[in-house]
Amino acid sequence: MKKTGTHYKVSSIGDIQKLGRVILHDELGLTGSEVSINELPAGISIPFVHSHKRNEEVYIILKGKGQFYIDGDEFAVEEGDVIRIDPAGARCLKAAVQTPIRYICIQTEAKSLVQFTENDGVPEESKPTWLK
Question: How would you write 73-113 as a 3-class SS string?
Answer without folding.
Answer: EEEEEECCCEEEECCCCCEEEEECCCCCEEEEEEEEECCCC
